[in-house]
Amino acid sequence: MQVGDWCVAIGSPFGFQATVTAGIISAKERDVDPLQQFQHFLQTDAAINPGNSGGPLLNIRGEVIGINTAIASRSGGYQGIGFALPMNTAAMVYNEIIKNGKVTRGSIGINFSSDPAQARDLLKAWGGVNEGVFVQKVEPGGPAEKAGLKEADIISTINGKPIHQGNDLVNMVTATPVGTPVTLGVLRSGKQENFKVVVGNLAQIFPERFGTGTEPEAVKPEGTTVSFGISIMDMTDQRRESLGIKQPGGVMVAEVEPNSFAEDIGLRQNDILTDINKQPINSTADVKRVQATLKPGQPVAFRVLRRDRGDKGAYTATFLAGTLPGVSH
């Protein structure tokens, strides 16, 4: 795919099943969050709204080129900027999970600037070149240090293939199996040298940033996260009295995750969840118990109490339902 190519997004925005929108590819390898080093998205102006997440982005031949993931918006709705995870990335992750049960990414243990302008200036000022990766730091004890790389080195090739920018290096190294040696072409003090580096496990080299994959998930202080995409709190007598709710039982929705199943079906913050598939809910443990019995593709219905209008309105019951996605949010 190239910038300017036509594309089509399919999803169920706001509950409207199988909605199709068209647009173009606005950009490739777009970094939405600088902390998420491996999420280089396709940007499109095909309308993507809450409910499109997980749906396909297709080219005009009907081939899947991405998975609709997120939008950039000040209103919470479509404003012309949507993002899709490239299908090549999704396929690589899928194949590794099927083969190994988890995704293990490679690393050589260096840091470089993620700001394109700063990276370009460093290359010009320090090495007199326009392309490559300027090494700002070599991780102590990492593969790069063991191989002899130093800060201010400029990586120009990997296994003979040119490295134009940081993303090129990241894409090649993370796709290389851990334990595999690679040859880096490095510009040091105006001279070209080669170094053989054995690719290591990213999570072990940078445990604080990327974790080891074995630590327990962080628990939010106010609620318990469940796989519907909500954080919930038990209803105390004091909380029930302050809200003017006389009905016993239920749990409060403390937070709804963006682009989650819960958001797709219309669950809101401060809703009081009282029943799931006709089973009474009296605690967060009840929600977990019911959730554990559900399977992807199964319909699930919620009964919730919701405040009518404003902060002083009475709570009345409403029902919400949807089909659990293939991968729970």
Label the overall shape: elongated
CATH architecture of the largest domain: Roll
Q: Give the % helix.
A: 10-25%
Beta percentage is 25-35%
Say which CATH homologous superfamily of the largest domain is assigned.
Answer: PDZ domain
Oligomerization state: single chain
By DSSP (H or I, 4+ residues per run), the number of helices equals: 9
Rounded Rg? 24 Å
Any chance you could write out the topology, listing elements then pairs?
Layout: E1 6-11, E2 19-31, E3 40-44, E4 56-59, E5 64-71, E6 82-86, H1 87-100, E7 106-107, E8 110-111, H2 116-127, E9 133-134, E10 137-138, H3 143-147, E11 154-158, E12 161-162, H4 166-174, E13 181-188, E14 191-198, E15 200-201, H5 202-205, H6 207-210, E16 224-226, E17 230-234, H7 237-243, E18 251-256, H8 261-265, E19 272-276, E20 279-280, H9 284-291, E21 299-307, E22 315-323
Antiparallel strand pairs: 1-2, 1-4, 2-3, 3-6, 4-5, 5-6, 7-15, 8-10, 9-11, 11-12, 11-13, 13-14, 16-17, 17-18, 18-19, 19-20, 19-21, 21-22
